[in-house]
Amino acid sequence: xxxxxxxxxxxxxxxxxxxxxxxxxxxxxxxxxxxxxxxxxxxxxxxxxxxxxxxxxxxxxxxxxxxxxxxxxxxxxxxxxxxxxxxxxxxxxxxxxxxxxxxxxxxxxxxxxxxxxxxxxxxxxxx
Length: 127
Known about the structure:
By secondary structure, the chain is mainly α. It has four helices and no strands.
């Protein structure tokens, strides 16, 4: 695992980064403060999980704008539903699951166009 702040490699079970001393876990107090709309707590949760969530989405969607839209939707849904999170230590996995599910929903709604669906003009060029 990498530290969200300094990007140094750290053990997965580490509570604090040994390099920059940034906390890595998610306390019940941090989640409670975020659920009461404490902007500092919300920012902290976002900063700690942004890169994991972004790369989860980006691995499934190649378009940057779509990935950022899904990222924003995922965080909005998560912060509105924080009361449903049962184990604060699992916040990272929970938000990644929300992002994954939202990405799958977007991909299902996107209709792909195959070449056989295109119409051609007299020169065999797509119209």
